[in-house]
Design goal:
Order of helices and strands: EHHEHEHEH
Strand order of the largest sheet: 1-2-3-4
Distance between the termini: 32 Å
Structural class: alpha/beta
Strand content: 5-15%
Radius of gyration: 15 Å
Shape: globular
Helix content: 25-40%
Largest sheet: 4 strands, parallel
Length: 122
């Protein structure tokens, strides 16, 4: 199952999800609502599936992900995050890492100067 979080600080030139850039463009969904929706599909996502969170940039809402992934772990549901990884390693991010089974890291470009051309953050 794929969940999209809103908000992105990079705004990459080749982004396929430009509608997720503005963190205020959607509506707030409670963790309990997300969990209820996910659990409706639990039989279809186990044992080889799970929940992947993408965006935008999901790490902008790390506290929400911690709450969601903490609940998913109670049901032994595999967790994954699709991220640019361009965040400081804070205690919050470390806690999220401990709850995440898989990181899908979107490296913009191996060359730092060429990477800066691809994203508007710099």
């Amino acid at each position: 199952m794929l969940c999209f979080y809103l908000g992105c600080h990079l705004k990459c030139k080749y982004c396929q999800n430009r509608d997720t850039w503005d963190i205020r463009s959607g509506h707030e969904v409670k963790i309990s609502e997300m969990l209820d929706t996910i659990l409706r599909y639990q039989n279809y996502i186990q044992p080889d599936g799970g929940v992947t969170v993408s965006g935008g940039e999901p790490l902008l809402q790390a506290d929400s992900l911690i709450a969601l992934f903490s609940e998913l772990k109670k049901y032994n549901i595999h967790t994954a995050i699709d991220t640019s990884g361009m965040f400081k390693l804070t205690d919050t991010i470390k806690e999220l890492i401990s709850l995440t089974d898989l990181f899908l890291l979107d490296i913009k470009h191996i060359n730092p100067s060429k990477s800066k051309v691809l994203v508007r953050r710099f």
